[in-house]
Amino acid sequence: MPENDKQGLSVVTCTAPVNIAVIKYWGKRDEDLILPINSSLSVTLHQDQLKTTTTVACSRNFQQDRIWLNGKEEDINNPRLQSCLQEIRRFSRKRRNTGDSTSDASSVSHKVHICSVNNFPTAAGLASSASGYACLVYTLSQLFGVESEQLSAVARQGSGSACRSLYGGFVQWKLGTQLDGKDSLAEQVESESYWPELRVLILVVSAEQKSVGSTSGMHTSVETSQLLKYRADVVVPSRMEEMIRVIRERDFPAFGELTMKDSNQFHAICLDTYPPIFYLNNMSHRIISLVHRYNQYYGETRVAYTFDAGPNAVIYTLQDHLPEFVQVVRHFFPPEVNGEEFVKGLTVCSADLSEELKRDINMEPTPKGIRYIISTKVKH
Predict the structure, then answer these.
(1) Is the pLDDT of residue 318 over 70?
(2) Exposure pattern of 57-85 as b/e (b: 16+ CB <10 Å)?
(3) Which of 147, 155, 232, 324 could cross-link to 137 by cystine, CB 3.0-4.6 Å?
(4) pTM of the predicted model, to two decimals?
């Protein structure tokens, strides 16, 4: 464990990625243990473009646990934060008591100071809680000498989808059947190198915090939406099997169609919730329309959208179709001429659009409708 002997200070810094679900998690069967009512499957995005960086310092001189998120001190007594801290310390003590730990025996009783920073908008529907809690739990585990196989269950208790951010590539979070949740864990379906042609665009229409948080939104949906129960019991089990199959076959049209259908069903559940929840806005709807018109022009699914609990679109496509689709977005959502660069992240080659394609899509351009695009790919 890294240590500065002068101050008795131990410091560890780690990073964790964002994951974007293609089969959505929405609703808990146990709110304390954060057990889902359905399995889910996600794609882990490259950390060069989207990540959380967390530094944890531990010292006998610290008077209390404290946490700062993006430079602002937050309440350390948040129940989910406390749950993660307590579980990691419990596992560390357990290892120490069996003589199996390499960590300093006294450090587990010391207080910690946690600093966490996202390089993307927090709470804007870009899965910041997933990368945040995955990073927190992994960094604490490195500090206190806790084994990695125990982390999925701990991260899940911070934020359900955080368990999926502990792995790269394509990851499923299994529903599980045990009451204690010990079998509701994340596991990798395929590695990040399995489908190298797959590319990801995040179309940021808003960086503002959503009006209804995921936790309260899920709770209301579970209480009031009949569609949610049907989805969990009838739709998702077969969808999970099909999604794993099309990923393994690298069948993009099937992957894209299933991804869009599942996103649409998630937002249908939000509308079926009472009172209804609106995560999508007019720009989201215009992006959905653009994607379908683009695919219709080619007579196949070349591009797919998915939306989490926010208005920002995540677009999946293959490398071959990426330059043209980015140019389509530029054309129908013209950016500010002298604003910051419109496409951030991985470089996208320029492409020419045919007049026929622009005419067939037949949409009025919406200037400044999309603030910027993050270009990324699958990774850990």
Answers:
(1) yes
(2) bbbeeeeebbbebeeeeeebeeebbebbb
(3) 155
(4) 0.92
